[in-house]
Specification:
Strand order of the largest sheet: 1-2
Order of helices and strands: HHHHHHHHHHHHHHHEEHHH
Largest sheet: 2 strands, antiparallel
Structural class: mainly alpha
Strand content: under 5%
Bound molecules: phenylalanine
CATH topology: Hydantoin permease
Helix content: over 70%
Radius of gyration: 21 Å
Length: 446
Amino acid sequence: MSKQSLVWIGKWTFILAAAGSAVGLGNIWGFPYKAGTNGGGAFVLIYLFCILIIGLPIMMAEIMIGRSSQKSPVNAMRLSAEKSDQSPSWRFVGWGGLISGLLILSFYSVLAGICLDYIFISGTDSGGMSTTEKFASQTASVSKLLFWHTAFILMNIIIIGAGVVSGIERIVRLLMPMLFVLMIVMVVNSIINGDFARGLSFLFAPNFSDVTPATFLSAMGQAFFSLSLGMGSIMCYGAYMPKDENVFNTSLTVCGLDTLIAIMAGLAIFPIIFAYGLEPDAGPSLVFISLLSVFWDMPFGNFIGPVFFILLSVAALSSSISLLEPSVAFLSEEKIFSRKSASIILGLIAWFLGIGSLLSFNLWSEVNIIGDLNFLNSMDFLANQFLMPLGGMFVAIFAGWFLSTKIIKEELEPGQKKIFIVWRFFIKFISPTLVALIFINQLFFS
Ligand code: PHE
């Protein structure tokens, strides 16, 4: 076996980095508000089903493709296609990923910036404003949003510029344990101060009368986004995974951690929302408006509030670095730029694009780009509902039908014959069909 060029040093690093990518705003902000607007338990059940049926097989495929070629997604797709006697044009799947990574980073950073700002807002008094007024006044200020957006992009540039081991590996080893501890503080807080029984039954007692085809699609899209699939982040991190680590076990662990954190976020939020007589279905403003009003009200809220928003920011940062890494890895691997210059240039591109999303909260709130969607929602739509499902579907089709069995067998350790058979079946037939269904449905019927 050839020596791997660039590898994570610590045994747990792949899991920490991939879980860091997966666990993000999607879990702590997106999952609770989507569960809240889709009737709770039934949504959660369908979501779990999607993680297992669609997410896990595609995650395994991305890791195999990345690790077998040890290159960034564009070259990983090209090389593994060539080694399987297929056309090198499969590299366009990698290109799609690079573009979606930058698009997502651009608006993700604006949202993460608001979380950073809220660390301070939740720690201070209301000053006589309602939380709705507070949110409106914060997002009306272009300079405030710009300040936090810039700060967040800068952190990404610094970490990614420092390198895979001294940047990403070092930071995820710090951030992920921190995230877990903060999350436990939040759940304990919710057990003490919240209506925990009601929160539990909201999340776990499925009421199928609430389920519509849209619930199914929203849960599938959420599972996809949450696992960071279809745009190269996991493939890129997989390229740095040591050869002696087991693809199935690590993928299962990452999917498990991602789900665990999403559920814990639900358990941290809903019991206190219920205890304070608020509704779970506020939508995207659930944490910024409803939850903030609880923090402003409850004992030690000025401490618990910042803990929650630090948690959100930490989760966002460990995700956003995985959005920037694939394209930076590509430019430096092709020797077009050094890693540092590539991080600066690509970070600046995402920063610049992010200004459009930032203005969607104020000056451009009436400016529609795609259909009746403003700039931020258009970016979100393009990436999440178009490029990511499309990328995921192509990865599944490629891995299921074109990737050579020799490569797959090398990657899925010997002795895992049953896993090979089951995975092969899912990646060939089930995952691409289901993703195609989400894709077509979201595109044409939403
Ligand atoms: N998975 C991240 C989240 O849940 C978002 C993300 C998507 C990160 C794609 C990287 C790649 O917030």
